[in-house]
Amino acid sequence: MAFTHAHARAETSSRARTTMRAIVCHGPEDYRVEDVSRPRPGDREMIIRIGACGVCASDCKCWSGAKMFWGGENPWVKAPVVPGHEFFGYVDELGAGAAEHFGVAMGDRVIAEQIVPCERCRYCRSGHYWMCEVHNIFGFQREVAEGGMAEFMRIPATARVHRIPDGISLDDAAIIEPLACAIHTVNRADVQLDDVLVIAGAGPIGLMMVQVARLKTPKKLVVIDMVPERLELARRFGADVVINPREEDAWPIVSGLTGGYGCDAYIEATGSPSGVEQGLTLIRKLGRFVEFSVFGAPATVDWSIIGDRKELDVRGAHLGPYCYPIAIDLLARGLVTSQGIVTHRYGLEAWDEAIRVANSLDSIKVLMQPENGRTLP
Ligand SMILES: [Zn+2]
Ligand SMILES: [Zn+2]
Predict the structure, then answer these.
(1) Ligand 1 centre and the CA of 319: distance in Å?
(2) Which residues contact 187 (CB under 8 A, 6 or more apart)?
(3) Residues whose CB is under 5 A from ligand 2 (ion)?
(4) Where is the Enoyl reductase (ER) domain (predicted)?
(5) Across all residues in the chain, what is the average pLDDT?
(6) Which residues of 135-153 are buried (b: 16+ CB within 10 A; e: fewer)?
(7) Rounded to an integer, what distance in angstroms lies between the CA atom of residue 17 and that of residue 292?
(8) Whole-number Å distance between alpha carbons of 331 and 165
């Protein structure tokens, strides 16, 4: 009964609701579907009704208990917390001044960037908000920013909010966050028209990087992955050459494409230390090495390759700063798609199945949809 008007727009907001369904992370492999309080907006804050929320590789690593989230005396994850940073939703309740502050109206479809900047540290103050020293990311620290795997979610005042135009499909809207990360990473590679670019790792974000890199029109776009279906998709998205290192050696192929020099730029998106080593082999002298992955274990490599042998330009890439409007525009223009990338959609109650599938190679991108099984807007 509570769901009868769940997707009603401005006239009938869900403000009357006092509770909501949510996935709550209590600890590694201890995520439960629960009834919790529906959040309330403070001044210059708003509540959105969640349309969908993607399960990120980082959510899988957090669920599995990776040390980067749970390690040390003061773990980065502050449980219990509602997970999820790949969400979008509909404005459902506006706190005092929030409409003007965010530039939104009731019922608008919106997204907030995954980081909630503090607006006080040296990075925030110098426009480098994605490196915010406090670094609150939605879905990991409950005090500031609970996540999007729930029916509703509170958007704090310092969140960076963007409106999503009507023409964008639900699946496309759900990939705006990872697509922004993909755009930032490809921008970091500084792709030139005569570049041979190698993207290693064709997971969901790798496959979005392929689509974005194609738009930059490099001379040759090479994609490396060990899953044949993902390589097939990479080809569909514009890769000129795909390599499965289980079946063939990458170096002779890249060498053959570059007169024996190696690739001009290498984007590392495998999440595996072997992807780093492979990159140092495939890249030419003075090349650009872009690191996007989060690793479960340290990557051990010969650093003399970076200095003495190749004088490489090593660049990190983190989050999707200033790239959300670009992601929204590319999706609106049909230049990037979620088709083939979003493979599974689950209601909140199906969490156990969803995380199992997300954590396997049976899926590419898994979405949690509070209204799954009911009529969608
Ligand atoms: Zn993510
Ligand atoms: Zn900050």
Answers:
(1) 8
(2) 323
(3) 118, 121, 124, 132
(4) 27-368
(5) 94
(6) bbbbbbbbebbbbbbbbbb
(7) 40
(8) 10
Q: In this structure, are residues 289 and 312 in contact, taking their beta carbons and an 8 Å threshold? A: yes
Q: Which ligand is nearest to the CA of 144?
A: 2
Listed by start position, the domains of the chain span 10-175+338-368, 179-316
Give the type of residue at 292: F
| Band of pLDDT at residue 308, cut at 50, 70 and 90 | very high
CATH number of 179-316: 3.40.50.720
pLDDT (tens digit per residue) in 112-162: 999 999 999 999 999 999 999 999 999 998 888 899 999 999 999 999 999
pLDDT at 12: 53
**What is the mean predicted confidence (pLDDT) over 104-113?**
98
d(CA 18, CA 106): 19
User: Which pLDDT score is estimated for 6?
Assistant: 44
Share of the chain above pLDDT 90, in %: 88
Q: Ligand 2 centroid vs 321 CA: distance in angstroms?
A: 13
Ligand 1 centre distance from Cα of residue 320 (Å): 10
CATH fold of the domain at 10-175+338-368: Quinone Oxidoreductase; Chain A, domain 1 (3.90.180)
Of 215, 190, 187, 185, the closest CA to residue 200 belongs to 185
Q: Which residues surround ligand 1, an ion (CB under 5 A)?
A: 56
* Res. 190 pLDDT band, cuts 50 70 90: very high
Q: What is the pLDDT of residues 335-376, one digit of tens each?
A: 999 999 999 999 999 999 999 999 999 999 999 999 875 544
Between the CA of 139 and the centroid of ligand 2 the distance, in Å, is 17
Cα of 234 vs centre of ligand 1, distance in Å, is 20
Cα-to-centroid distance, 158 and ligand 2 (Å): 10
What is the Cα–Cα distance from 312 to 94, expressed in whole angstroms? 49
Q: Which residues contact 47 (CB under 8 A, 6 or more apart)?
A: 15, 38, 39, 40, 41, 91, 92, 93, 152, 153, 154, 155
Ligand 1 centroid to residue 59 C-alpha, Å: 7
The helix or strand, by DSSP H or E, that contains position 353, with its residue range, turns out to be helix 351-358
Structure tokens at 297: 């274990």
Q: What is the pLDDT of residues 205-230, one digit of tens each?
A: 999 999 999 999 999 999 999 999 99
